[in-house]
Amino acid sequence: MKSMTKRVTAILLCALTLVSVFSIGASASSERSISFPAGSSQVAIHMGGKQVLQGRSALINSVTYVALRDFCSLVGGCTVSWDAKTRTAVVTKGTKVATATDGDYYIYENGRCFYTVERIRIIDGTMFVPVRAIAKALGVEVGWNNATRSVTLTNTGVLPKSGDEFYNANDLYWLSRIISAEAKGEALLGQIAVGNVVLNRKASPSYPNTVYGVIFDRRGGTQFSPVSFGTIYQKPTASSIIAAKICLEGYSVSNEILFFMNPRIATNNWISKNRTFEFRIGNHDFYS
Predict the structure, then answer these.
(1) Is the pLDDT of residue 30 over 60?
(2) Please, what are the domains in the chain?
């Protein structure tokens, strides 16, 4: 009898644990209060002339976060599932599928990567995501009123194009390779900054007007060492492809940076002597 009681108790505990794990990131109750991190603040969000997501949104490190499932319910037409093994929420809307993984800095949607600036996080068992990234993935426009420090959402009903439709394949091919060759092992933001340098040059009248042209530009000597070393032709890392996509989405650490160097291994100090230092990310110094 005691053995049977123990087995029943064990089964019940296991079931409760599974329910708890499945609930993470998927809770939809707007009644349960959330204990946001210290230093964060409530932010008002409006849609259709009404305040929405009350108590389910907050400003954390200057980024507006919303409870993922609540936001999807607000937009409508979405289903949300939770993969406890990968700690990933899967949002399906029509034929589009978006994924948000705890700790990541982007939302992936049909081949596209929407940068979140701050990491996706789970707070009190609920997944919270930066509003601009999830809004873009679900076809919602976001407006910010600085005077009232509030957000306005407008549901366009138009889902974004797939990655194959949106990105220029040639630009993605070469941009991901130069990022991988120059910044393999760097944090995502550092890889993005390297990609920004290439795109900033592309936009400048002083450089070629294509990604390929900028990378293989030889005026004044080879511009990027991987071109000389041949590492530009190596298969890019998965993170460099993500960084390249984020750059091609329009995110920029700085529109001014045109040069970068790793001062520990640099064999030429021309950049540091002739250009304006802007900031350092990881092992790279960036200059305008």
Answers:
(1) no
(2) 25-160 (3.30.457.10), 167-287 (1.10.10.2520)
